[in-house]
Amino acid sequence: MPKRLRLTRRFPIAMTEDGYRRLKRFSREAGLDEGEALSFLFEHFESVTDQDNLSHRLRIFNSELEARKR
Domain of life, per the record (predicted)? Predict the structure, then answer.
């Protein structure tokens, strides 16, 4: 029997406009709502990310973060 998807956690998050638009586009293309799309991405994080690319992009994001907050 397939495991039932239960959305049991709700938490406030802050997202950039670019990030939110990308989430909306991904969820629409996948036929999911935003919460289901985030659950999918985090449940399958290792298989949907490239570790080397992730590390590189994270360094760039962190280096630009303070400037983006202003």
Answer: Bacteria
